[in-house]
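$ run holo --ligand "NAP" --emit tokens
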Amino acid sequence: MKVVVTGASGLLGRSIYERFTDEKNWSVFGTAFKRAQLGLNKLNLLNKKEVSDMLNTVKPDIIIHCAAERFPDKVESDPQTAYDLNVGVTAHLANEANQLNIPLLYISTDYVFDGKKSPYKESDEPSPINEYGKLKLLGEKKVLSANSKNIVLRIPILYGTVETLEESAVTILFKGLKKSQQQNEFFKVSNYELRNPSNVKDIAHIVFKLTELKLHDVNDINGIFHWCGKEVLTKYDMVVKMANAFGLSLDRVIPVTEQIGVQRPYNTCLDVSRIEQLGIGYHTHFDVGIKSVLAKWI
Ligand SMILES: NC(=O)c1ccc[n+]([C@@H]2O[C@H](COP(=O)([O-])OP(=O)(O)OC[C@H]3O[C@@H](n4cnc5c(N)ncnc54)[C@H](OP(=O)(O)O)[C@@H]3O)[C@@H](O)[C@H]2O)c1
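-- output --
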């Protein structure tokens, strides 16, 4: 079996790429752009012809579409580029895949909801409150209108092995925590919005299992699926867990309740029963996962 993974150089894509690479029945064609190295294939997804040529040459059994602009602040500062990548590329990929009869699994986000009445089921009406959520929702619509049998997987804030601490909205907190130890600086961190962080390895496992079920023609593996971690944490709670893991002081960490940066939904907890009923849900306890990810940054 052959899978194309877009965004295979990114935080989540790397983990999905590795998950499929570990399986001997699978060959993986990972695409990247600026970081196309170590077996990845350089492909500018904004170039429609390059994308069409790649699909016609590789002829995968399924496409996992991870590539996106996923920093809400960057989406707000350059909305056109974000639209082209998150919506335009997704539409082209979904249409091409449909013509070639290739199913597509699109990675989406809990930010399609406004955060006012969680937990959200797959059938709940999305109502994004920032541009990033709006574009990802438009991407979902392109994927499902190209073919209603495609898959949309909505996931929460992610952490995992990072190339820089800034790469994940979770691991960047460790940078602030460390600075607060070293330079007598105060670190203000949100103790307001509630999140259910997931380890990228958990998501990669679920993506792999969904893919296998889909290709084995198990009924009903199409449409929208939800997954999120089982612990409800504010960013301040995450920092407390990081400090405890490495015996660091919280003396100069200040929990705040005002909004920092772009507007974000309050509580985006997702109802995960559809995935749990398939028996493929997976959750790494945050204490364990974050300690292992941050060990090399201490
Ligand atoms: N990270 C989170 O907390 C989070 C939470 C919920 C949902 N998601 C969703 O999960 C998916 C993966 O997110 P992520 O965190 O792994 O993103 P990421 O680390 O920012 O990676 C983005 C990927 O997109 C690729 N890319 C960007 N522009 C491209 C272009 N023009 N042509 C080809 N590739 C291009 C990048 O390749 P290069 O770097 O090689 O250029 C990179 O591999 C996204 O759909 C995101 O919306 C993420």
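-- notes --
The chain has one domain: 2-160+197-230+268-284.
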